[in-house]
Amino acid sequence: MDLRSSDNPFRFTPANPESQTNGNHSFFLRKGQKKKRKIKQRAPRGSPLPARMAPASTSPPAKARVMTAPAKSPLLGGIGDLDTAVSLRLHTLFLPVPRLLLKALEVAGDGRIWLPIPISLLLISTTTSSKVSPLLVGLVVGLVLDILFVGVTKLIVRRPRPAYNAADMYVAVAADHWSFPSGHSSRAFLVAAFLAAGGFPRVALFFWAAATSASRVLLGRHYVLDVVTGACLGVFEAWLSSLLLRSMCTRISFLVC
Which of 17, 56, 160, 193 has its Cα between 20 and 30 A from that of 169? Predict the structure, then answer.
């Protein structure tokens, strides 16, 4: 059989050189176009990636960051912002002060110490004597007033404590979560003013009250405005308890006034 015959089904027909050239040309053309598209998709160094190529952000959304920020008291307004800046500056400036000393002043002005002591002495005096010292009665009255005034004011103003306040503070009641006014400052100046009026050394008393109040800012427990307001409130409570004591002396016979 003649392999070159047209009737032969197994006859080999050589490829058309022209068509083969065109096929090769189109193949390399398509390959070049794909390469160009890949080059276009590559971003130059230093340029931001497209949104679909950029890695997913791990930072919380802006709304979550705003929600976790400490709230401000609307009653203090712009003075609260200034007070916050000054308090933070003082807290940072006096960081070298030994924290153990500041904590000792904190404990010395704690209400869990000052309220039980005069109440215990008052109960002991009533069982051992027919007369009761007006100093103890007035001090107990003043401390009870301090709890009421400070607690109600804190719940009304609802100023958060400083964000840099350490987590080593004991919170006795819900009102202690708020900052304005300072209960330590009001209590210290109440005790100092009342005992100074009773004949105790006033210089030492007011120095202790001022040091206790300053420790509240340096520890990061309170702002300056909290401390100043608390000191004024403590002096007012001492004056008010003295008025109540005078009124009680005229009506209660067992008080030695």
Answer: 193
